[in-house]
From TrEMBL:
It comes from Iamia majanohamensis. Pfam families: Dyp_perox_C (PF20628). This is Dyp-type peroxidase. InterPro entries: Dimeric_a/b-barrel, Dyp_perox_C, Dyp_peroxidase. Residues 153-186, 276-316 are annotated as: Disordered.
Length: 440
């Protein structure tokens, strides 16, 4: 059973928010962090109180925060190394190399920046409900003002039609968590090949202390007081080269019979800008109730190399019924546009119970390594990185006749500008962390 009075709102609510503000906090002393966690325990928005017409506030703790807190040797050893080490040390695994390397990251993750111990997330009301100019930090406002600097805040804002900066509708496919009280929409979960229906993903794929798709309880018993009813959150600032993407699609289309630049872009993503898949008529409600191997015309029309097919292959890998449910991501991202430096992109946010098995596997294997899908050295044409040192980035799409159309090399369109792994603890865990009190 999920207790929605314990779990923070972002975990259970696949928000479509007008605005998302992140304040990254560095705590000069352990006492500052303990005080912050005590305030958070009393003021974060539990899922039970989340309302789409009102802002909600969540708080996450980083691995550096856990170390500052000093949770004890046994509990620390039970927490995942990827979380404790942080995203910077995962750079090679995640393909954050070359222009995406941590040496190029922006504050608060630029080289030499002080460690971030906690992140406050203010999730604005739903699109259409006017969002205030300033974030609503609720009861955490005092702590945020006291601890954060202006350089350490990121703001995401939704765009009309829910599109991301390349112009594609986002937020269509997101798995339902079992016990979350949300109905399972076809396509939004796990395909049960025996019952021939979609079902919700077991809670333990998103929430620690709950049974996961393998039948085990997610998390480590020695860290249960910190992890239970919590979830790991991946935060990444992904800058998008919108002109570069359009230009590359136009050049590729020049050499391909029957496709224009928009068709190429659609085939790279796997959906059209309006969210429909190629097997649908443009303008229809975007379909999500499809499989790739045995799923009829809609799924078969999605190019095997496309972003949506590689990031969530549904039935398109061997033993898919046992493999794919173990690599689900619960996305909560939102676009950003930075007026100060003219950049734009995605504040990619995704929840999971196991950072390495879920986020890192999708990021490094499914999106970066084509061999899993019989595509050789091809990376995901949308988010893949050029090899370090400037070698080619081969890619393919499906042509107008359904055949594979290759290009020897595509530029990269997405660059990592910073990020971190964060634990969104339950309210009880926040209280437990705060109750350990300042050490002498
Ligand atoms: C700037 C970078 C990115 C852009 C512009 C982007 C864009 C999109 C778009 C337009 C969709 C289709 C809409 C939808 O199904 O909700 C999508 C789906 C998805 N993306 Fe991304 N994405 C990006 C990065 C990533 C990364 C880094 C990951 C994982 C590590 C990822 C995982 C997914 C998943 C799991 C889906 C759902 C696929 C499905 O269930 O059919 N995306 N993305």
């Amino acid at each position: 059973m999920i207790d929605p009075t314990e779990v923070q709102s972002l975990v259970l609510h696949p928000h479509a928010a007008a605005r998302l503000d992140l304040a990254f906090l560095h705590c000069p002393t352990r006492q500052d962090l303990v005080r912050l966690l005590g305030t958070a325990a009393a003021t974060v928005t539990p899922a039970a109180q989340a309302r789409s017409d009102r802002p909600s506030v969540n708080l996450g703790v980083t691995g550096a925060g856990i170390d500052l807190l000093d949770v004890g040797r046994r509990a620390r050893a039970a927490l995942p190394a990827a979380f404790l080490d942080g995203m910077r040390l995962a750079a090679t695994r995640n393909g954050d190399v070359g222009p995406s390397a941590p040496e190029t990251w922006v504050p608060p993750f630029a080289p030499g920046d002080p460690p971030v111990h906690a992140v406050v997330l203010a999730v604005g009301p739903r699109p259409g409900v006017p969002a205030a100019d300033a974030p609503d930090w609720g009861g955490l406002a005092g702590s945020v003002d006291h601890l954060s600097t202006s350089a350490a805040r990121w703001t995401g804002t939704s765009r009309p039609g829910g599109v991301e900066p390349f112009g594609f509708r986002d937020g269509i496919s997101s798995p339902t968590i079992e016990g979350s009280g949300r109905p399972v929409r076809p396509g939004a979960g796990v395909w049960d090949g025996e019952a021939l229906r979609w079902r919700a993903v077991r809670a333990g794929e998103a929430l620690l202390g709950h049974v996961d798709e393998s039948g085990a309880v997610a998390g480590h018993p020695d860290a249960a007081h910190l992890e239970r009813d919590g979830s790991y959150l991946v935060v990444r600032r992904l800058e998008q080269d919108v002109e570069g993407f359009r230009g590359a699609c136009a050049s590729w289309a020049e050499g391909v019979e029957g496709l224009d630049a928009d068709d190429v872009a659609d085939r790279i993503v796997g959906r059209r800008r309006d969210g429909t898949v190629l097997g649908q008529r443009p303008g229809e409600e975007p379909a999500n109730d499809f499989l790739y191997r045995d799923g009829g015309p809609q799924g078969r029309a999605v190019p095997p190399s496309s972003h949506i097919r590689r990031s969530h292959p549904r039935d398109d890998v061997e033993h898919a019924d046992r493999i794919v449910p173990r690599h689900q991501l619960f996305r909560r991202g939102i676009p950003y546009a930075d007026e100060a430096d003219g950049t734009e992109g995605l504040l990619f946010l995704a929840l999971c119970a196991d950072l390495r098995r879920q986020f890192e596997l999708v990021q490094s294997h499914w999106l970066q390594d084509g061999n899993r899908f019989g595509l050789g050295a091809e990376t995901d044409p949308l988010t893949g990185q050029c090899p370090v040192g400037g070698g080619p980035r081969p890619a393919s799409i499906t042509g107008a006749d359904g055949g594979r159309v290759r290009t020897p090399s595509l530029p990269s369109f997405v660059t990592t500008r910073g990020g971190e792994y964060v634990l969104l603890p339950s309210r009880t865990a926040l209280r437990t962390m705060a109750a350990r009190g300042p050490r002498p």
